[in-house]
Amino acid sequence: MSRNIVMTVSYDGTTYSGFQSQPSGNTIQDIVETAIHSLTGEQLRIIGSGRTDAGVHARGQVFNFHTESRIPQERWALAMNTRLPDDIVILEAWEAPEAFHARHSAKRKTYRYTIDRRKFPDVFSRMYAFHHPTPLQVGAMREALTHLIGEHDFTSFTSIQSTQPHHVRTIFEAWLEEDGPLLYLFVTGNGFLYNMVRIIAGTMMWVGEGKLAPADIPAMLAAVDRTCAGPTAMAHGLMLWNVEYPAE
Amino acid sequence: MSRNIVMTVSYDGTTYSGFQSQPSGNTIQDIVETAIHSLTGEQLRIIGSGRTDAGVHARGQVFNFHTESRIPQERWALAMNTRLPDDIVILEAWEAPEAFHARHSAKRKTYRYTIDRRKFPDVFSRMYAFHHPTPLQVGAMREALTHLIGEHDFTSFTSIQSTQPHHVRTIFEAWLEEDGPLLYLFVTGNGFLYNMVRIIAGTMMWVGEGKLAPADIPAMLAAVDRTCAGPTAMAHGLMLWNVEYPAE
């Protein structure tokens, strides 16, 4: 009987074309599947909790796959890491019930967007933070975020290239944390549309700059029109923070 | 009359052959001098506070140079940064008295060595931290560091390739800071020999692993013999933290 193996993976997305496999290659999924093939001899497809765009990072992406391999649960992570490049690291691996599905079973997903407010960018976080040296009104951004909480049609906050038939999603929490010059935007929801967190981040920066008011957000959601929201923030500031599943 | 301009520079040393210019090129100094040439038209040499090895980073390296340029002090940093690659950033620039010399005038220099104690390396700090997943006895390391404080002949803690005629240096402070899985070793002194902080870091890791006892350090210093100390820790964990000068 095949086993259902789940892994948490962290990656630096800088040089990759995103998580999900595509014809032009160079994706996290391709590299992980190659490592599994090298380890078990199986040519199989992994199921990610969702895509991440080109250049987006992950602290805790989750995927699963079904394997005939008898490798003990506690040996998977190290065995995979010795076969992966150093910008992709498996943090944990465990065996799940047959029905577990990294995408369908996910209940909550959290993303973090990082803004570096220093006068000049910090070289050590330049690939993981968006540099925004001019002042941001954090209080206004906090107020604007409250309008995104709850169930909404997020058409205004997704790329017009979205292929999803429905754009209603629920944001459970959205908050800002300050750590000296760094400003972190966290957003937790039941699922996210294509570019959704990046458009939220770009819109929040416009609010912080005073180009938009917090009270503009409800009309922006109601418009159901991408042109009504702010810009799509650059990919390198974004990180898939974690994915939560129901306790078994 | 020429002006003496001082700059603080931060760099990610990952892809460079160190700070100081050398025939094979690809050094921080070469790149900075090229940027100055592009800005002022002058072909000049900068004076660094000291070298950093290939792969070593700097949060706050300091250099100075004499220029005929009339660029106002407050414009230098931005003008330089637009001409530098994104892994080299000028943080500050100011005009100093004629006698200021980045190396000779330096009073204290601090280095930081970063150890990542996670089971698997953190992808986002993999270029800035040495991965050491097995346990380290931090208390023993702290005790060992106390034996390095003061004026000593550090011949045992420098590369046999050192070209310095004298190996007596003073360490003012040496301490460890813990931040979750990260362990930082800070060392402040009046000057450092070739590979000195990396050999101190490598020796401290041997103490942490129990391969050496804190009480072994005095004999190691007294031996005046490189083979008596621990290994040279890898370059990528090291960062020149700051350089201090007397108040004018």
Automatic annotation (TrEMBL), chains A, B:
Protein's name according to its UniProt entry: tRNA pseudouridine synthase A
InterPro entries registered for this protein in UniProt: PsdUridine_synth_cat_dom_sf (IPR020103), PsdUridine_synth_TruA (IPR001406), PsdUridine_synth_TruA_a/b_dom (IPR020097), PsdUridine_synth_TruA_C (IPR020095), TruA/RsuA/RluB/E/F_N (IPR020094)
The enzyme's E.C. designation: 5.4.99.12
Role: Formation of pseudouridine at positions 38, 39 and 40 in the anticodon stem and loop of transfer RNAs.
Residues that coordinate or bind substrate: Y111
UniProt record, GO biological process: tRNA pseudouridine synthesis
Family label: Belongs to the tRNA pseudouridine synthase TruA family.
Catalytic activity: uridine(38/39/40) in tRNA = pseudouridine(38/39/40) in tRNA
Enzyme type, top EC level: isomerase
Alphabetical UniProt keywords: Isomerase, tRNA processing
Domain Pseudouridine synthase I TruA alpha/beta residues, every copy: 9-103, 144-246
SUPFAM superfamilies: Pseudouridine synthase
Domain of life: Bacteria
Summary of subunit composition and partner proteins: Homodimer.
One GO MF term: tRNA pseudouridine(38-40) synthase activity
Active site, per annotation: D53
Presence of keyword Glycosyltransferase: no
Species in which this protein is naturally found: Paenibacillus curdlanolyticus YK9
